[in-house]
C-alpha cells in the first residue's frame, strides 16, 4: 500500500524490551545507519542494573533512545516520536516518554495475560490504563512473524527468537525510509567468520520486517530526515564516549612519543575504555586487566615511573579504592591520567545510570594536601579532545590528572569528524636529558622556576638514580620530616597545579557578556543546556566549564559580570559550592537533579525562565 512520506526536521525513536531482546543492538544499528546517512544524532542507552533481570518485569527493561535530525542535535531528546515496546513491561516503563501524537509499535504476542500481570497491569487494556490510547498504536505479532519468517532457516527455536529485534529493526527502517544495505553489511561482518549460517536468516528477517511494515494500514505515514547541511567537511563516524577517550589517549601517546599503558579493573560504565585499548596493540597500547582497582592504578604508577603515558580507568566506587595510590602519584609527582566514568552513587548505587556526583571526590578525596588537575568531557565526541588534553597536562606538568566522564557520555554516541593529527599540538614531557646543562647535578624535585614542574628521570640511567615513594622528600630527593620543608613542598605542589591555568583557554560565554543571569554547566550537561538556552533565545547567557581545577583564568571576571549565576548539575550542587568557595561575593544559585537520568531540556527551560 502507499504511505504518505513526510519530511521531518528531526525524530526521536526509543527501542525498549527485556535485556535479552537486543534493543541496545537494534538502537545502535539504527543510529549507525543514520550517521552513515549524514544525519546529526545523539543516543542514550539506558540499561537495567541487573545483568539479566526477571523476564517481563519493569525493573528489567532495557532501552535505547536515538535522536536524529537534519539540523543540529545536541541531546537524545526529551520525548519520542516512535516507541518500540517488545512487551508490556517496556510499554509501562516508557509510555510516559511518548509525544502526544507518537506511534507505539508493540509485539502484541507478548501482551497476553501472563505478560500483563508480570508488568503489574490491572486490566487487559494497558493502553487505556496508561492513558496512551490516543497515540497511534501499531500492534504487530512480531514473535509469530519472526518464527514464520525463519521456519525453513534451519535455526533452532531459541536462535529464531533472538532475531525478533531484527524484524523490529526492519519495520523501523521502513517507517523512517532507511535502506537496509548497512544492516546487511553489519550482519555479514558479524557472522562471516564464526557463524556464517546466521547471515541469510538475519538478512531475511530484517527484510521481512521491512516488507510487513510496508503493507500495514495502521502505519499512517513514513518519514524522511534529510542529511544535515551544517556539518563541516570531513570524514565522519559514529562514536561513543568510551571509544573516544581511548582514541584520544592513543593520539596523545603518538604526539608525546611514548608508549601507552592502561592498568584497569573492569567496572560499569568504564569497561569500554580498557576493552577498546586492548584491541589496539598494533598502535603500541599495552593493557593490563588487574585483579582489583588498587592493583590497576599501582601498575599504572609503575608504568609512569618507567616512562610511559600511564592511564587507569574506573567509576565512582573504584575511584574510592584508588584514593591512597592517587596520593602516592601526587607525592611522587608522576604523570598519570585517572578516568572516572561517573555513575549513580554512593557505594554500588545505580551501576548503569548517569550522575555527576563524584566531583567532590575528584577534588578533595585524598588524605593530606593533595591537589590535582580535574577536567570534564562535555559530549561523546569531545571525550577525544578531553582525553588528549588530560594526557598533555599530566605529561607536561608531571602530575596525575582526573578526567571526569559520565555514563551518559561513555555509552552515548554522536557523529565525530575524524581529526587530522597535524592539527593537534606536540606533547613535550620534561625529560631531564633535554633540560640539565652539562655538569649540572640532578635533583629529582628541583623545579622549573616558571611552571614548578620537576624533571622526569627514567630508571636505569646513570647519574639520574633517585627514589620515589609516599614519604616526604627535599628537593634533593632525601627523605625529610622537617616541618618547614614539608610546608614548602606542599605549597609548591599546590602552586604547580594552580599554574596549569596559564595553559588553559579562557571561559567562553555565549549570548550577552554581562547582565542579570548567567547559566552555568559542566561535563555532560552541555547538550541539554545548549538546547535549552537555544530555545530561550539569544538574550540568555551561558558558560560551560571543561576545566574544573584549576578554573579557567578569566572565571572571576566572567562571573562578576552577572547579577546571578544559575549552576545546573546532576548532583546536589557540588560545582556550585566549588564556585561559591572561590567567589563568595557572587550570587550563585543551584538547579539540581539526582535521579540517575540526564536533564530534560523542558525542565531546564522552566528552571532558567524562573530566574530571568
Automatic annotation (TrEMBL):
Transmembrane segments: none annotated. Residues 20-211 form the Pyruvate/ketoisovalerate oxidoreductase catalytic domain. One of its GO terms (molecular function) is oxidoreductase activity, acting on the aldehyde or oxo group of donors. This is 2-oxoacid:acceptor oxidoreductase subunit alpha. Residues 261-473 form the Pyruvate flavodoxin/ferredoxin oxidoreductase pyrimidine binding domain. The lineage of its organism: Bacteria, Pseudomonadati, Bacteroidota, Bacteroidia, Bacteroidales. The keyword Oxidoreductase applies. It comes from Candidatus Cryptobacteroides merdipullorum. The keyword Ribonucleoprotein does not apply. Keywords: Oxidoreductase. GO terms for biological process: response to oxidative stress. InterPro entries: 2-oxoacid/accept_OxRdtase_asu (IPR022367), Pyruvate:ferred/Flavod_OxRd (IPR050722), Pyrv/ketoisovalerate_OxRed_cat (IPR019752), Pyrv_Fd/Flavodoxin_OxRdtase_N (IPR002880), Pyrv_flavodox_OxRed_cen (IPR002869), THDP-binding (IPR029061), Transketo_C/PFOR_II (IPR009014). NCBIfam families: OAFO_sf (TIGR03710).
